[in-house]
Amino acid sequence: MVLTADPSRTAPDPKGAILPTRGLGDRLSAVFWRHPNVLLVTLLALPLLWLVVVYLGSLTALLLQSFYSIDEFSGQIRREFTLSTYAELLRPANMDIIIRTVAMSAAVTLGAVVIGFPIAYFAARYAKGHWKALFYLGVMLPLWSSYLVKVYAWKLILAREGIITWATDGIGASAVLNGILALPVIGGTSLSTSYIGTWLVFLYVWLPYMILPMQAALERVPQSMLEASSDLGASRWQTMRTVIFPLAMPGIIAGSIFTFSLTMGDYIIPQIVGSSRRFIGQAVYQLQGTAGNIPLAAAFAVVPIVIMLIYLTIARRKGAFDAL
Amino acid sequence: MPAAVEFQNVSRHFGSVRAVDGVDLSIAEGTFFAMLGPSGSGKTTCLRLISGFEQPTGGMIRIFGQDCSDVPPNRRNVNTVFQDYALFPHMNVRDNVAYGLMVKGVDKRTRHDRSEELLALVKLEGYGARKPGELSGGQRQRVALARALINEPRVLLLDEPLGALDLKLREAMQDELKALQQRLGITFVFVTHDQGEALSMADQVAVFSEGRIAQIGTPSEIYEKPRTRFVADFVGSSNVLSAEMAANFGAAARPASLRPESLRIADEGARVRGRVIALRYLGSGTRVVVAVPGGELSVFVNKGMPVPEQGSEVGLNWDPEAMHLMEQG
Fold first, then answer.
1. Can you tell me whether residue A67 is helix, strand or coil?
2. β pairing state of B295-302 and B78-81
């Protein structure tokens, strides 16, 4: 077959090779195309400004404050470098606060992993279409309502006169509830005044932050990898332990960063639900407010940062990010 | 002796889709068996039925005579080389290869030694400490092969294992796989959509079409005596003649296959004459497409032979036995 040649195209129009500019957008694109770095700077200038000045700047200011101390007589801040504020952190009363907070954060994180993993696994491996939409809705919905409303609602649920007491009475299981409340340290007069209650509310409030990154990590594990494991003779449990869990680890760590640090920084939940013993957040809140001891408040605020850094270092050493 | 793999009227339906529809086959031990077909023809589902990732909706699958309907994949002495290799990214090459021994509880020392042996078998000595992400496609393919062989399976399943490799590497791997299979003497079941690959490597080829087997035979049987129009079309690029054309050329009134390389351009005693409508240079020769009454015929002209000009009129000739009559449909 012979292609019919268009006679008007035999002598190519030299101008046709380059298309005309269509205004400012084209001209800008051309600048960005010629100088890719200009585009990068334009995109990053504002976020970088925010990150460096507002974010890291205030963090540095906080850190500096923690190296000052307070004059016990005048209540004035002495602007001289000292480690005495940090020494004050080591006093038994303050150490109690730190240990209590870290233990609670760890317990909340652990609980979130245990409850969140099956949900995330279901969403990543089995949920399709409508089920997936339902999953996202179910996980995100609690985030849409006010934090305070949720916490107060939990106070009512957990109270001695609340629905849990009523329900356990109804099914004749009040002995179980009383048994749990009689446990040393974590028990109390009612769920709403015990560490168990604080733990439950923390768990409820932060669970979505654990589920979502875990689900994202699990979703990236291809089906063929699970099949390969089973093909090579692994049982379901072995596949879970040696393939799925390590591959989900970056997601679990990401989620645990949320649950851990959010719990460590919170000062409202332990104030509303739980025993009246203080957490780091409450200590910071009271020290910078009523007590006016900004340096000690700053030193307290540094504790979660240091703990998170230690945590991440250990996680990295243990190979938690090998699958990244 | 029972067949390595035996299918008796096996079906696998996904809702209304009949991915595998009444397949019977028998793979003798020690053969290199290729499942050939276009995508969606059911060949991969058949492979997954053998490995146990799919369960048949009907029929019976036996591996070495044992019914394995209720046997989960991890208890079948069958291993798979996956299309995407499915290497574990968080383990190094050695741990990947030794995975099958690790889950069996073999001690570390033995695991280490065995994986080194297997890595040597696939010519990857010294790569044990690397991560799969640091390897090239061909090297990953070898690791996947070593990993699948460490449990000494009685049947090795390969799901388009060479699909992701470039042409040069693929040809080298074809030779290596064939040599490996002969050396180990185990049954290889190989899924591919590449007919050249199937013909050059396999002892037996099953051609799949729409969930059924269109033909099973040796590569030469498949190539030279295609049973249906589909096989003739899919394997090689044959001239498929309609029943009328075949009758016109003096054969029975049935569809026939005529391979381009068995046609000759010759004016003397030509069986049919026609006009050259296309030429395609193939390196080892030229494919000449000739329009003849009732259709087109492709002729393969060897390198060095005169090639007619486009638009010229030529006569075509062939030996009567070159025309292979097929079944209707």
1. coil
2. unpaired
- CATH code for the domain defined by A90-317: 1.10.3720.10
Q: Which residues of B115-141 are buried (b: 16+ CB within 10 A; e: fewer)?
A: bbebbebbebeebbebbbeebeebbbb
Q: The pTM is what?
A: 0.81
One-letter amino acid for residue A256 of the chain:
S
Domain ranges (residues) in chain A: 26-60, 90-317
Whether residue A233 and residue B148 make contact (CB cut-off 8 A), yes or no, is no
Tokens of B321: 């036995």
- Phi, psi angle pair for A251, to nearest 5°: -70, -40
What does DSSP assign to residue A232? Answer: T
Which stretches of chain A sit within 8 Å of chain B by CB?
A: 1, 222, 224-225, 227-235, 238, 242-243, 246-247, 319, 322-323
Query: From the list A234, A247, A319, which residue is nearest B103 (CB)?
Result: A234
Q: Looking at the DSSP assignment, which residues form a beta bridge with residue A84? A: none
Rounded Cα–Cα distance for residues A199 and A8 (Å): 80
The alpha-carbon radius of gyration of chain A (Å, integer) is 28
Q: Which domains does chain B have, with CATH numbers?
A: 5-232 (3.40.50.300), 256-325 (2.40.50.140)
- For A57, the token pair is 């700047």
Burial class for B328, CB neighbours closer than 10 Å (0-12, 13-18, 19+): exposed
Q: At A8, is the pLDDT very low, low, confident or very high (cuts 50, 70, 90)?
A: low
ipTM: 0.85
How many Cα atoms occupy the beta-carbon half-sphere of A235 within 13 Å?
4
The Cα A102–Cα A81 span in angstroms is: 28
A269-318 residue pLDDT tens: 999 998 888 999 999 998 888 778 889 999 999 999 999 999 989 988 87
Secondary structure (3-state) at B301: strand
* C-alpha to C-alpha distances, A315 to A252, A312, A322, B45, nearest whole angstrom: 11, 5, 10, 41
